[in-house]
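The protein record passed on below.

***
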Amino acid sequence: MKVPQLLGGLICCLFLWLLPQAAYAQEEAIQDFEQELRSLEEFSKVYHIIQNQFITPQEPQALLRQAIRGMTRSLDPYTQILTRQELEKLEQESLGTYRGIGISTQVIKDQLTVSQVSPNTPAELFGLLPGDIITHVNDHSLEGITLNKLPNLLHTPLEDKHVTLTFFHPENPQDLFKKKIPKTWIRSSSTSSHSPQRGVLVLAIHQFQKDTAEAVKKALHQEDFQTVILDLRNNPGGLLIAAVETAELFLEAGPIVETRNRQGEIVAQYISRRAFARKAPQIIVLINKYTASAAEILAGAIQDRQRGILIGEKSFGKGIVQSIFRISDELFLKITTAKYYTPSGISIHRKGIHPNLSVSDTNQVKRYNQEDRIFQEAIKHL
């Protein structure tokens, strides 16, 4: 048999094999589409029965919005529908200015936990501490709450002058505190720093905001530090790009972080192109169970690149990316679209980052004193 005839026969066989496969795939797609139509028809029937038969008349737009929220709540704790007011509040927080009481929270084991209390804010004045458990917001129980159900409770209207919180300190769960806390305009600084001794800088990053990298750079340029103790404890995260810009101040040329979509394809790679003109300082990073998201990116990059050591507790383990899509002028979808991967290709989501030296934190004591165990361990490594 001649080669062209052989090739022609093979191509014909391949075509005959692919034809039923394509037909099967098309049939499967048609069945999926028909199932979607049946489900939409079911939804329409339920909607109209509620509109026509429910004992209390329902406002159509509110009912449909609740249906959309219900759909997003089934995905993961971070995907949620936002109103324009809620989106604007997120944007204000990224700038460090918002109306509230001065706390950051995380849902840990189905409990709304205070992860950070900003200094000189109503929350601090009324006795809230990192680690406190909030059980009620404006007398609404938070039992079994998930993160994507929180905005309607926590993002109370701007015109509200107070928010009432019921909470307890974890060491005394039987003692409940109920406080009516005034809301005010909060201007939170993303960093704070001090030098406990010559050549040593203690630099705390409270949250990654638009100005964080510039604030870190300013602190580093105060003098020629031999050691930087980078405190990321209780840092809930913030802006990815701010964490990347900050990481570049500590890492020479090489990878910082990459994001991958649900197919495992690389969406974005962030790389440092920095070259240090002089010897880089020693870096000691402090983390705890509230260190999350963008803060974990910085800690993970420093650890993976062997640029410094991590001391403290295993971090929170939020290693996913949320993107925001405009649905209408008044409605926006914040949805999880990718995962973070450290320079060594590790996803930290639901795993956290393990420190090089494990030391339990002490949230109820003043930072940087003799009772601050993680800080005291860092001092030993100067």
About this structure: The mean pLDDT is 88. The chain has two domains: 80-94+97-187, 191-380. The CA atoms of residues 267 and 356 lie 30 Å apart. The first helix runs from residue 3 to 53.
